[in-house]
Structure formats: C-alpha cells, structure tokens
Amino acid sequence: MTELDPVIHAQARLRVTATLAALDDGDRMTFPRLQELLGMTAGNLSTHLRKLEDASYVAITKTHQRRTPVTFVELTRTGRRAFEDYTAALQALLDPAADPSEVPS
C-alpha cells in the first residue's frame, strides 16, 4: 500500500503546499497573502510553515521593502517533488485499478 507523506498529509500543511505548488517554479508569495488565501491565523500558519521548512519543503526569506519587513514563502524543489509524489500516492489510493508503473516515483 502506498504511504502518504505525513509532513504534507496534515490538512493545514496540505493546503499550504497545494497553494504554493500552484505558483510557477521559483515564484514566491508574501506571508500575509498566503495567510489571507488560507484564512489561517498568523500563529497557526507559522507553526505549519516551520514543519514544512524543517522538512526542506518550503523556503522562508525575510527581507525589507523600503523600511517595511516582508516575509516571502516559496516551495522548494524538494517540496514540489514531495507534493507531486503525495498527489500521485493519493491518486493510487483512490484508483486501486491504476497501473502502479504509471504512477511517477
């Protein structure tokens, strides 16, 4: 049986990862925009981003625009691959008749 990545599988982290995966490779999003899109509190989002960052799935960049601090979040290549593997594993679970050789590894 295919195992789902426990880092991504938590509902909030899956939502974060799916949102960031919708961006083009190398694109990033500001923390407030991600928070707004997901309807999460800053503390809750920070906690889940920390777990994803610990797994090297997201990169957090803190910088300034003029004198205002800005935090950017982006999905790393490792994170993008983990999300692709997660969605393939989920598809395999949902469609057990699918040929496992067609599921990317």
UniProtKB/TrEMBL annotation:
Winged helix DNA-binding domain mapped to chain residues: 18-94
Listed CDD domains: HTH_ARSR (cd00090)
Pfam families named among the record's database cross-references: HTH_34 (PF13601)
Superkingdom of the source species: Bacteria
SUPFAM superfamilies named among the record's database cross-references: Winged helix' DNA-binding domain
Protein name: Transcriptional regulator
